[in-house]
Protein backbone atom coordinates (compact mmCIF):
# COMPACT_ATOMS: atom_id res chain seq x y z
CA UNK A 1 0.00 0.00 0.00
CA UNK A 2 1.34 3.44 -0.97
CA UNK A 3 0.90 5.85 1.93
CA UNK A 4 1.51 9.61 1.84
CA UNK A 5 2.01 11.54 5.07
CA UNK A 6 -0.13 14.63 5.65
CA UNK A 7 0.80 17.10 8.39
CA UNK A 8 -2.31 19.04 9.44
CA UNK A 9 -1.31 22.69 9.95
CA UNK A 10 -4.40 24.51 8.72
CA UNK A 11 -5.63 25.83 12.07
CA UNK A 12 -5.44 29.26 13.66
CA UNK A 13 -3.39 28.33 16.77
CA UNK A 14 -5.53 30.65 18.89
CA UNK A 15 -4.61 28.98 22.21
CA UNK A 16 -0.93 29.66 21.51
CA UNK A 17 -1.54 33.29 20.56
CA UNK A 18 -1.89 32.77 16.80
CA UNK A 19 0.73 32.18 14.14
CA UNK A 20 2.06 28.81 13.08
CA UNK A 21 2.53 26.36 15.97
CA UNK A 22 4.70 24.17 13.81
CA UNK A 23 7.26 26.93 13.36
CA UNK A 24 7.81 27.30 17.11
CA UNK A 25 11.15 25.88 18.25
CA UNK A 26 11.82 23.02 20.63
CA UNK A 27 15.43 22.20 21.37
CA UNK A 28 16.50 24.75 18.77
CA UNK A 29 14.51 23.14 15.95
CA UNK A 30 11.06 23.94 14.56
CA UNK A 31 8.34 21.52 15.63
CA UNK A 32 7.58 20.83 11.96
CA UNK A 33 11.20 19.86 11.26
CA UNK A 34 10.97 17.31 14.07
CA UNK A 35 7.71 15.94 12.68
CA UNK A 36 9.07 15.66 9.13
CA UNK A 37 12.13 13.80 10.44
CA UNK A 38 9.99 11.26 12.29
CA UNK A 39 7.26 10.91 9.64
CA UNK A 40 9.34 10.69 6.43
CA UNK A 41 10.70 7.14 6.97
CA UNK A 42 7.15 5.88 7.51
CA UNK A 43 5.61 7.07 4.21
CA UNK A 44 6.26 7.47 0.49
CA UNK A 45 6.15 11.27 0.67
CA UNK A 46 5.00 14.09 2.94
CA UNK A 47 2.48 16.88 2.27
CA UNK A 48 1.76 19.85 4.50
CA UNK A 49 -1.85 21.01 4.79
CA UNK A 50 -1.72 24.75 5.51
CA UNK A 51 -3.62 27.85 4.47
CA UNK A 52 -2.22 31.27 3.60
CA UNK A 53 1.18 32.01 2.09
CA UNK A 54 3.01 28.69 1.56
CA UNK A 55 6.40 30.45 1.39
CA UNK A 56 6.60 30.58 5.18
CA UNK A 57 7.20 26.81 5.06
CA UNK A 58 9.72 26.86 2.18
CA UNK A 59 12.60 25.71 4.41
CA UNK A 60 10.87 22.35 4.86
CA UNK A 61 10.89 21.52 1.14
CA UNK A 62 7.35 20.11 1.27
CA UNK A 63 4.41 20.54 -1.06
CA UNK A 64 1.87 22.74 0.74
CA UNK A 65 -1.75 21.78 0.11
CA UNK A 66 -4.42 24.28 1.28
CA UNK A 67 -7.93 23.34 2.34
CA UNK A 68 -10.12 22.64 -0.68
CA UNK A 69 -13.25 23.96 1.06
CA UNK A 70 -13.76 27.57 2.26
CA UNK A 71 -13.94 29.12 5.73
CA UNK A 72 -11.36 26.96 7.56
CA UNK A 73 -13.83 24.33 8.80
CA UNK A 74 -11.21 22.44 10.81
CA UNK A 75 -8.98 19.38 10.54
CA UNK A 76 -11.48 17.35 8.51
CA UNK A 77 -10.95 19.87 5.70
CA UNK A 78 -7.20 19.32 5.97
CA UNK A 79 -7.65 15.56 5.80
CA UNK A 80 -9.87 16.01 2.75
CA UNK A 81 -7.27 18.20 1.00
CA UNK A 82 -4.61 15.58 1.75
CA UNK A 83 -6.78 12.72 0.49
CA UNK A 84 -7.55 14.55 -2.75
CA UNK A 85 -3.90 15.38 -3.42
CA UNK A 86 -2.75 11.87 -2.46
CA UNK A 87 -5.31 10.36 -4.85
CA UNK A 88 -3.93 12.54 -7.64
CA UNK A 89 -0.45 11.24 -6.79
CA UNK A 90 -1.65 7.63 -7.04
CA UNK A 91 -1.45 6.86 -3.32
CA UNK A 92 -3.74 4.40 -1.58
CA UNK A 93 -3.94 6.14 1.79
CA UNK A 94 -2.74 9.07 3.88
CA UNK A 95 -1.22 8.99 7.34
CA UNK A 96 -2.28 12.17 9.12
CA UNK A 97 -0.49 13.81 12.03
CA UNK A 98 -1.00 17.23 13.63
CA UNK A 99 1.55 20.03 13.26
CA UNK A 100 2.04 20.36 17.01
CA UNK A 101 3.15 16.82 17.98
CA UNK A 102 6.95 16.81 17.76
CA UNK A 103 7.46 13.32 19.22
CA UNK A 104 5.09 11.20 17.11
CA UNK A 105 5.83 7.45 17.31
CA UNK A 106 8.36 6.08 14.84
CA UNK A 107 6.12 3.05 14.28
CA UNK A 108 2.86 4.98 13.87
CA UNK A 109 2.35 4.15 10.19
CA UNK A 110 3.38 0.53 10.56
CA UNK A 111 0.99 -0.13 13.44
CA UNK A 112 -1.96 1.67 11.87
CA UNK A 113 -1.45 -0.08 8.54
CA UNK A 114 -1.27 -3.46 10.30
CA UNK A 115 -4.66 -2.73 11.89
CA UNK A 116 -6.41 -1.90 8.64
CA UNK A 117 -6.74 0.72 5.92
CA UNK A 118 -8.80 3.08 8.10
CA UNK A 119 -7.52 3.52 11.64
CA UNK A 120 -7.27 6.05 14.47
CA UNK A 121 -5.05 6.27 17.55
CA UNK A 122 -6.15 5.80 21.15
CA UNK A 123 -3.69 6.77 23.87
CA UNK A 124 -2.86 4.73 26.92
CA UNK A 125 -5.32 6.86 28.89
CA UNK A 126 -8.19 5.72 26.65
CA UNK A 127 -8.49 9.09 24.91
CA UNK A 128 -8.73 9.24 21.11
CA UNK A 129 -6.13 11.23 19.18
CA UNK A 130 -8.12 11.56 15.94
CA UNK A 131 -5.65 13.75 14.04
CA UNK A 132 -3.33 10.72 14.08
CA UNK A 133 -4.95 8.43 11.56
CA UNK A 134 -4.70 6.28 8.48
CA UNK A 135 -7.26 7.19 5.84
CA UNK A 136 -7.87 5.34 2.54
CA UNK A 137 -8.14 7.75 -0.39
CA UNK A 138 -11.42 6.12 -1.43
CA UNK A 139 -13.05 7.80 1.60
CA UNK A 140 -12.56 11.27 0.08
CA UNK A 141 -16.00 11.53 -1.59
CA UNK A 142 -17.84 10.57 1.60
CA UNK A 143 -15.66 12.97 3.59
CA UNK A 144 -16.27 15.83 1.15
CA UNK A 145 -20.03 15.27 1.49
CA UNK A 146 -19.76 15.19 5.28
CA UNK A 147 -17.74 18.41 5.45
CA UNK A 148 -20.16 20.11 3.03
CA UNK A 149 -22.98 18.93 5.31
CA UNK A 150 -21.40 20.54 8.36
CA UNK A 151 -19.26 17.75 9.86
CA UNK A 152 -16.47 19.29 11.94
CA UNK A 153 -15.46 16.78 14.62
CA UNK A 154 -12.80 14.48 13.22
CA UNK A 155 -13.12 11.80 15.93
CA UNK A 156 -16.90 11.66 15.61
CA UNK A 157 -16.71 11.27 11.84
CA UNK A 158 -14.06 8.55 12.05
CA UNK A 159 -16.11 6.60 14.60
CA UNK A 160 -19.27 6.86 12.51
CA UNK A 161 -17.33 5.84 9.39
CA UNK A 162 -15.98 2.70 11.06
CA UNK A 163 -12.31 3.47 11.74
CA UNK A 164 -10.43 0.80 13.68
CA UNK A 165 -9.01 2.05 17.00
CA UNK A 166 -5.33 1.26 17.67
CA UNK A 167 -4.05 1.68 21.21
CA UNK A 168 -0.63 3.19 21.88
CA UNK A 169 0.80 3.40 25.39
CA UNK A 170 3.49 5.97 24.47
CA UNK A 171 1.93 9.20 25.74
CA UNK A 172 4.97 11.32 24.79
CA UNK A 173 4.32 10.35 21.18
CA UNK A 174 0.99 12.16 21.24
CA UNK A 175 2.00 15.16 23.32
CA UNK A 176 0.95 18.30 21.52
CA UNK A 177 1.86 21.94 21.95
CA UNK A 178 -1.34 23.95 22.46
CA UNK A 179 -0.28 26.63 24.94
CA UNK A 180 2.85 28.43 26.11
CA UNK A 181 3.26 26.06 29.08
CA UNK A 182 3.34 23.14 26.65
CA UNK A 183 6.47 24.57 25.01
CA UNK A 184 8.39 24.21 28.29
CA UNK A 185 7.08 20.67 28.77
CA UNK A 186 8.11 19.82 25.20
CA UNK A 187 11.63 21.13 25.86
CA UNK A 188 11.90 18.69 28.79
CA UNK A 189 10.67 15.78 26.65
CA UNK A 190 13.12 16.74 23.89
CA UNK A 191 16.04 16.61 26.34
CA UNK A 192 14.98 13.10 27.31
CA UNK A 193 14.38 11.81 23.76
CA UNK A 194 17.04 13.60 21.69
TrEMBL record:
Positions of the MobA-like NTP transferase domain: 5-157
Chief localization: cytoplasm
Assigned EC number: 2.7.7.77
Binding sites annotated in the UniProt record for Mg(2+): 100
Annotated GTP binding sites: 8-10, 21, 49, 67, 100
GO molecular function: GTP binding; metal ion binding; molybdenum cofactor guanylyltransferase activity
Biological process terms in GO annotation: bis(molybdopterin guanine dinucleotide)molybdenum biosynthetic process
Subcellular location: Cytoplasm
Reaction catalysis annotation: Mo-molybdopterin + GTP + H(+) = Mo-molybdopterin guanine dinucleotide + diphosphate
Cofactor(s), by name: Mg(2+)
Enzyme category, top tier: transferase
Keywords carried by this UniProt record: Cytoplasm, GTP-binding, Magnesium, Metal-binding, Molybdenum cofactor biosynthesis, Nucleotide-binding, Nucleotidyltransferase, Transferase
InterPro entries: MobA-like_NTP_Trfase, Molybde_CF_guanTrfase, Nucleotide-diphossugar_trans
GO cellular component, one term: cytoplasm
Subunit details: Monomer.
PANTHER family in UniProt: MOLYBDENUM COFACTOR GUANYLYLTRANSFERASE
Function: Transfers a GMP moiety from GTP to Mo-molybdopterin (Mo-MPT) cofactor (Moco or molybdenum cofactor) to form Mo-molybdopterin guanine dinucleotide (Mo-MGD) cofactor.
Homology family: Belongs to the MobA family.
Entry text on domains: The N-terminal domain determines nucleotide recognition and specific binding, while the C-terminal domain determines the specific binding to the target protein.
Stated name of the protein: Molybdenum cofactor guanylyltransferase
UniProt organism field: Amaricoccus macauensis
Phylogenetic lineage: Bacteria, Pseudomonadati, Pseudomonadota, Alphaproteobacteria, Rhodobacterales
Amino acid sequence: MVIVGVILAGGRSSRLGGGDKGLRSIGGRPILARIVERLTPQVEGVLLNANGDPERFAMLGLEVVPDSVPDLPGPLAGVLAGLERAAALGADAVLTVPCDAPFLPLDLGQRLEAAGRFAVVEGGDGRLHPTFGLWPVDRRTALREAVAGGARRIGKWMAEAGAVVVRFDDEAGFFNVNAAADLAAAEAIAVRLD
